[in-house]
Amino acid sequence: MRFAVAFASLTILWIAFAPAYAHLFTSMAHPLIPWIESAKGTQYLVEGTKIVAERPILMRPPEEVTVNRQPLRDTSGDYNVALLAALLLATPGWSWRQLGRTLAWSLSLLVVTQLLAFLVTIEYTKLWPTKTQAGIVLSTDYSRAKLVLFDWLYAFFEFMGRGFFALIIYLGALAFLWGRPSEPPPAHAVGRNAPCPCGSGLKAKRCCAA
């Protein structure tokens, strides 16, 4: 119940945050354009929650430039951040300080995985043959093996990656940060004639305190 309320609330908030998330990905990917794009003058544009790549294509003959628009990502349906935050907020037993640290590094790690998926999408859409009026145009660094590789990577991030990384990061947070159960009080803190805290039924002086 606690998780359902947290996830529903964060999902509603995501509708307002999704455009800013699209701008975040665009700003992180923009400095990489000279290294990942073969077409000079490529731009990444944000249209609401959608990120679109505009790649100039030189037509020969005649030598004229046309612009190919390819969608890269729509952050309106990217609820992994809301899912991970809801899972962490619904987990009992953590102090607010521990929860804040866990949210910070977990969400940062999730953004890194989603940025990697975004870069794979950029490379996949760049390598895919483009159909124009003059025929099929290929990227200057096109190779069939490279296209097959990024086709598989794109399929993994697009289908298997929905919620997968959020759950993996959450399980990692549980494994590394979950508090151990409190230990029973030491025997010397119990009276010598009191029952031993280990549950043996003997007096402390004849059991663990002996």
Outline:
It is built from 6 helices and 5 strands. The chain is an alpha+beta fold and 210 residues long.
If you had to describe this structure to a student in words, what would you say it looks like?
The chain starts with a helix and ends in a 33-residue tail after the last helix. Helix 3 packs parallel to helix 6 (164-177). The longest helix is centred in the middle third of the chain and has 32 residues, at 96-127. The strands form two sheets. Strands 1-2-3 form a three-stranded antiparallel sheet. Strands 4-5 form a two-stranded antiparallel sheet. The protein has helices at 2-29, 33-36, 80-89, 96-127, 144-160, 164-177, and strands at residues 43-47, 50-59, 64-74, 130-132, 135-137. It has 210 residues and is of the alpha+beta class. The protein is built from six helices and five strands; from the N terminus they run ααβββααββαα. The mean pLDDT is 82. Helices cover 50% and strands 15% of the residues. 20% of the residues are buried. It is elongated and about 100 Å long.
